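dude i think i finally got it to work??
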Amino acid sequence: MKRRVLIVDDEENIRRMMRLTLEVAGYEVGEAANGPQGLDLYADGSSWDVVLLDQRMPGMDGLEALGLLNKRNAAARVIMVTAYASVELAVDAMKIGATDFVRKPMTPEILRGAVAAALQKSAKRPPEPPGEIETPKERPQIETVTLNGFEILRPTSADAIRTQPDEHAFIVQAPDRKRSQVTVKIDVDAVGYVERITKRRLATNNSFWAFAAERLLSDYLWNQGRIPPGGKLTLKEIDRDQLLMAERWKK
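look at this
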């Protein structure tokens, strides 16, 4: 039986491109031109395997439609599609229940890869309970964010990834499920800049730099839709929002 994908987008040319791309790959595709029409077609979700949902539509926008879809089916696989969103908005959408976030314009390979990756997910992650929870020393890899079908996984001690003191390593799983190690080097000038502005010295092994490194990697996957060449990136700049965080970050 063919897998069924529902496209909800107010732009007819975008729906046509996505439909043709997915039909060539063997999917059965349905279309809706707005949020209410998409909800009507979706019904209880039992007939659809994946939903491609535009974020910016007139009337009911994608985030509102996402919330309503997840009320009908908590296990819905919904891929948000947008030309405008930031990585931060992508993360917020995933907290509501999105499975992935794909940037317009996307290549056919990225679209097919994102749908294939979504189909690999049999269930949503449970919501995080409030408050701090003590975690065991050995944890499984934790999926942090999915962009263009790529998942960033934080390596655990079991992965035994060796890095230099000024590097942070991540595991990135591509849409074809192949995993690659990506190392983000913290440039000495970035460390010096933070120290000059905040009057605080945060060592490169501090968790602040791990956060900044993961954000850089997320931005790269979002904008480029591929693994960095050689599996390496260098963090050279810190923006204003990150500086504000650095001022309050634990040493």
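The radius of gyration is 20 Å.
im so relieved honestly
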